[in-house]
Design goal:
The complex is a heterodimer of chains A (about 250) and B (about 270).
Chain A: H1 6-24, H2 33-72, H3 79-117, H4 120-126, H5 131-168, H6 174-184, H7 187-213, H8 218-250
Chain B: E1 6-15, E2 18-28, E3 33-38, H1 44-51, E4 59-64, E5 67-68, H2 74-81, E6 84-87, H3 99-109, H4 117-130, H5 146-158, E7 164-168, H6 176-193, E8 196-201, H7 204-212, E9 213-216, E10 221-224, E11 236-242, E12 245-250, H8 252-257, H9 261-265
Parallel strand pairs in B: 3-8, 3-11, 6-7, 7-8
Antiparallel strand pairs in B: 1-2, 1-4, 4-5, 9-10, 11-12
Classes of the chains: A mainly alpha (about 250), B alpha/beta (about 270).
């Protein structure tokens, strides 16, 4: 009767097995430093242009939208604090994660998927390398290291976008905007603003690796794995974001 | 009597409950060769992958160098795999690595190798010269033809001079001339090192070359195993797979005489 649940439950189980094995092997030799650095370059530096663009315009849009609402209460001067809080707590981590998920979960799944269907993963195992150590671990470490950095950059660029709107359109002074933003941000805002991308980094890399490594069915299978990786990573980002936010709100 | 290099005991491998091979038993002794014939989807590749522990049986036992690998942890399998070489279908070369890096991969990654790093390049050059591709060191797999990629795969499979070498459809999709060249290389690798060899193929001609030809180091060419060409290379057996089951095991003569309609389809009579 519950047969339809078998596959999803099995997938979740396999995902946690892969995650567990990867985390267990984090300290295990050999460490592929070159692969990790290369992934940092692909994931971090490679995602920078799109993250900058996305962060900048989210700051611009936040400032524009908030200014209209704040005008009603005669509190346009609060634009800086509001842009800062929304960017650091929510928009920065989530939008950056969505962009990186779209770019890198897909990239990881298609790369590992192609290796799987052309038997390169089997060849790797046959030739003395554990794919978890060689492929999954570097991607996990690279994404977890890069995601908070990208988010911090995105937050900053977003605040610059908000500042440009505040300064040129809303006639708010530079010191009012930046002082307001600086004073509003508290320690736990920054903590949650950096903890979230770290956790999203785990999701983005492991989901990409998981779907890549279980690819079957030739090139069509690679396409399917790529789509699944992006969709699942995005869903998990939203779900986990709600949980983390709830925890911080309760604190 | 020495322990066989590889032994299958009633092995069944299944995917999602559907058996890919069922109740397969055979063994291969030191220096012997096996040619596994069968139609597409008959489970030939599954046998090769199960031999190295890349796939796990749901029933039966697989002994590699005398050790039961059916439930051996991946970490412990690496030591045994280091004594084996494998050529995958289409070569399975790593796209992101050059030919030199691909061929050097087993030397640098098999943990029991400990090959001196300063000697890797000369060993790689030697292995590529053996397959007549010494000029491709700096190239990437995508820059080579299908036949050349297989030859690089053969060099990679043999670079550590493994005791057991497995070849998965080495001639599939190649023109007859290239296919014969590939088979010559396989016979050459087998005879120069006396390696135990298992080859999976759909072409009876491949098995015939394995059975009837030897590599002569003096002439650096293949020659018929005897003057009249009928005598077989010792220790070579043919296995025929049909829908996951082993339906024939015997030498070339028995294969040619077989009255089984499925088995006889693979035999090309002169």
């Amino acid at each position: 009767m519950l047969d339809f649940l078998k596959n999803p439950v099995l997938s979740i189980q396999e995902f946690f097995v892969l995650s567990g094995r990867t985390i267990k092997n984090l300290a295990v030799r050999p460490h592929y430093f070159n692969d990790t650095l290369m992934q940092m370059d692909i994931i971090g530096v490679g995602s920078l242009p799109i993250v900058l663009l996305c962060g900048f315009f989210s700051g611009v849009v936040m400032a524009l939208q908030m200014s209209r609402a704040l005008q009603t209460y005669g509190a346009v001067g609060q634009t800086g604090p509001i842009v800062a809080i929304t960017l650091v707590r929510e928009l920065g981590p989530v939008l950056t994660a969505l962009v990186v998920a779209g770019r890198n979960s897909a990239g990881i799944a298609s790369e590992l998927g192609s290796m799987k269907v052309t038997e390169q993963i089997d060849a790797m195992r046959a030739l003395g390398t554990d794919p978890i150590l060689k492929l999954v671990k570097p991607r996990l470490i690279a994404t977890c290291a890069m995601q908070p950095c990208l988010t911090a950059i995105s937050d900053f660029v977003g605040m610059i976008g908000g500042y440009l709107i505040a300064f040129f359109l809303l006639r708010i002074t530079t010191s009012e905007y930046w002082n307001g933003a600086y004073r509003t941000l508290e320690y736990d805002d920054v903590v949650q603003g950096l903890l979230k991308p770290f956790i999203f980094g785990v999701v983005i890399s492991l989901v990409g690796c998981f779907y890549g490594l279980r690819t079957t069915g030739g090139t069509q299978g690679v396409g399917r794995a790529t789509t699944q990786a992006v969709v699942v990573a995005i869903v998990w980002i939203f779900v986990l974001n709600a949980f983390i936010t709830k925890i911080f709100v309760s604190i | 009597m020495p322990e066989p290099v590889l032994r299958f005991e009633h092995v069944t491998v299944a995917f999602d409950g559907n058996p890919a091979i069922e109740d397969v038993s055979f063994e291969v002794g030191h220096g012997e060769s096996r040619v596994i014939l069968g139609a597409a989807g008959s489970g030939k590749t599954v046998i090769l992958k199960t031999s190295l522990g890349l796939l796990r049986p749901v029933a039966g036992r697989v002994f590699l160098f005398g050790q039961d690998i059916a439930n051996l942890p991946e970490k412990e399998l690496f030591g045994l795999r280091a004594r084996c070489g494998i050529l995958f279908q289409e070569g399975a070369l790593f796209d992101s690595l050059t030919i030199e890096e691909n061929v050097a991969y087993p030397l640098e990654n098999h943990r029991r190798e400990n090959y001196p790093p300063d000697k890797v390049r000369s060993r790689v050059e030697e292995a590529l010269r053996f397959v007549e591709l010494a000029h491709t060191l700096e190239k990437f797999p995508s820059q080579l033809s299908g036949g050349m990629r297989r030859r690089v795969g053969i060099a990679r499979a043999n670079i550590t001079e493994p005791a057991l070498v497995l070849y998965d459809s080495p001639t599939a999709g190649l023109d007859p001339i290239t296919a014969n060249n590939i088979m010559s290389l396989i016979v050459k690798e087998r005879d120069v090192r006396q390696a135990t060899t298992i080859i999976v193929t759909q072409r009876f001609q491949d098995g015939k070359i394995m059975a009837k030809y030897r590599y002569n180091p003096a002439t650096e060419d293949l020659e018929a195993a005897s003057h009249n060409g009928d005598a077989l290379v010792k220790g070579i057996q043919f296995l025929v797979m049909k829908q996951g089951r082993l339906v024939f095991e015997g030498d070339e003569g028995a294969l040619e005489r077989s009255a089984d309609p499925y088995v006889s389809k693979f035999v090309m009579r002169d």
